[in-house]
Design goal:
Chain A: InterPro entries: DUF6691 (IPR046513). Chain A: This is YeeE/YedE family protein. Chain A: Keywords: Membrane, Transmembrane, Transmembrane helix. The complex is a heterodimer of chains A (about 140) and B (about 170). Chain A contains 6 helices and no strands. The longest helix of chain A is centred in the middle third of the chain and has 23 residues. Chain A is an all-alpha fold and about 140 residues long. Chain A has 2 domains: about 80 residues, no CATH class; about 60 residues, no CATH class. The mean pLDDT of chain A is about 95. Chain A is globular and about 45 Å long. Chain B has 8 helices and no strands. With about 170 residues, chain B is mainly α. In chain B, α3 packs across α5 and α7 packs antiparallel against α8. Chain B starts with a helix and ends with a helix. Chain B is globular. Classes of the chains: A mainly alpha (about 140), B mainly alpha (about 170). The interface between A and B is large, with 121 and 124 residues.
Chain lengths: ~140, ~170
C-alpha cells in the first residue's frame, strides 16, 4: 500500500466516511452481517455470497482499471494506490488459516465491524477474536 | 410460463432460496463504496488492515510501527466507522428495527475470529482485501488466496456441520 498524500483533508475524511457507509449498508442489505447467511453459503445451501462478491468485484474492477486511465489523479488529490499482492508461503498459509476461521464462525473482518451497526453485540466476540488474531500475527512477525 | 422460464425460475429458487436481488444489490453497493474511496482519494479499502493499523496506537513493536500502518491508521478507522454508520442506516431505515443476533456460539465466534484475524494479516488480505480489491486489481496472488480460503472455509463449515449434527 503506497502512502497517499491527500490535499483536501476534510473532504477526504467525509468521502472516506461516505464510502465506508455505502460498504456497510451494502453488507447489511446483502445479509453478510449475519453469520448464518455466510455459513449457509459455505454449506452450499444458498449461493447468494457469489452474487455479493461478483457484484462488488465488477464495480471495483471498472473503477480500479478505469479511473487511473481517465484521471491524472484522484478527485481530492494524492495518488492512486495499488494492491500489490505477492505469492509466498505466508500468502497461502494465511489464506488457509483465514478460511478455517471463516468456516468456523461465518464472520470476516468487514461484517464483524459493520454488524455492530445492526445492534448485534454477539459479533463483539468475533471482533475481539479478529483483533487478537491480528495482534498475535504482528507479535510473531519479524521487523 | 414456457418451459425455459419455469426451469430458470426453479434454478434460481434452488440456488437462492431467500431471493437473489438483495445479494446483487448489496454487492454492487459494497463495490461502489470501495470504488468511490479509490476515485476520490486513491485509497485501496481492504478491511483487515484496520486491525493491525489500530494496534499501532498501542503496541510499540517495530512491526506495528511501520509506515504502512502509521500512515494509514487514521483513514482506516474513519472507513471502519463508516461501515458501522452504513449498517446503522440500514438497520434503522430498512429492517424491522429489532437488533440482530446470531445463533453461532460465542466460543466459535471468538476462536474462528482469531484464525480470521491471524490468517488475514499473515496473508495480507481478507474477503475484501484479496477478494474485492485484489481481484479488482487483477492480482493473480489474490486469486490464489481467494481460492485457498474458499476451499478451507467450505471444508471447515461442512465438516463442522456434520460433527455437530452427530454430537447433538
Amino acid at each position: 500500500m503506497n502512502a497517499v498524500t491527500v490535499k483536501h483533508p476534510l473532504a477526504a475524511l467525509l468521502a472516506t466516511l461516505a464510502a465506508g457507509a455505502l460498504f456497510g449498508f451494502g453488507l447489511s442489505l446483502a445479509g453478510m452481517v449475519r453469520p448464518e447467511v455466510v455459513l449457509s453459503f459455505l454449506r452450499l445451501q444458498d449461493w447468494g455470497l457469489m452474487l455479493v462478491m461478483g457484484g462488488a468485484v465488477l464495480v471495483v474492477l471498472l473503477a480500479y482499471q478505469g479511473a487511473p486511465r481517465l484521471l491524472a489523479r484522484p478527485l481530492l488529490g494524492g495518488n492512486f494506490g495499488q494492491h500489490p499482492s505477492v505469492w509466498n508461503r505466508d500468502t497461502w498459509r494465511g489464506a488457509a488459516l483465514f478460511g478455517l476461521g471463516w468456516g468456523l464462525c461465518g464472520v470476516c473482518p468487514g461484517p464483524a465491524i459493520a454488524g455492530l451497526g445492526t445492534g448485534d453485540l454477539d459479533l463483539l466476540w468475533a471482533l475481539a477474536g479478529i483483533a487478537l488474531g491480528a495482534l498475535a500475527q504482528g507479535l510473531r512477525a519479524k521487523g | 410460463m414456457d418451459a425455459f422460464t419455469q426451469m430458470a425460475s426453479a434454478l434460481l429458487n434452488t440456488l437462492f432460496p431467500t431471493g437473489w436481488g438483495h445479494y446483487l444489490a448489496g454487492g454492487l453497493l459494497v463495490g461502489t463504496g470501495t470504488a468511490l474511496l479509490f476515485v476520490y482519494t486513491g485509497r485501496i479499502g481492504g478491511m483487515s488492515s484496520v486491525f493491525s493499523s489500530t494496534w499501532s496506537w498501542l503496541v510499540r513493536r517495530p512491526y506495528f510501527q511501520t509506515a504502512r500502518y502509521l500512515e494509514t491508521r487514521g483513514w482506516r478507522l474513519v472507513y471502519a466507522a463508516g461501515l458501522i454508520v452504513g449498517a446503522l442506516v440500514w438497520w434503522l431505515g430498512f429492517s424491522d428495527g429489532v437488533p440482530l443476533s446470531t445463533q453461532v456460539p460465542a466460543w466459535q465466534l471468538l476462536l474462528g475470529g482469531f484464525f480470521v484475524g491471524y490468517g488475514a494479516r499473515l496473508s495480507n488480505g481478507c474477503t475484501s482485501g484479496h477478494g474485492i480489491c485484489g481481484l479488482g486489481s487483477l492480482q493473480l496472488p489474490s486469486l490464489g488466496a481467494v481460492l485457498i480460503f474458499m476451499a478451507t472455509a467450505f471444508l471447515t463449515a461442512n465438516a463442522f456441520a456434520r460433527l455437530s449434527a452427530r454430537f447433538t
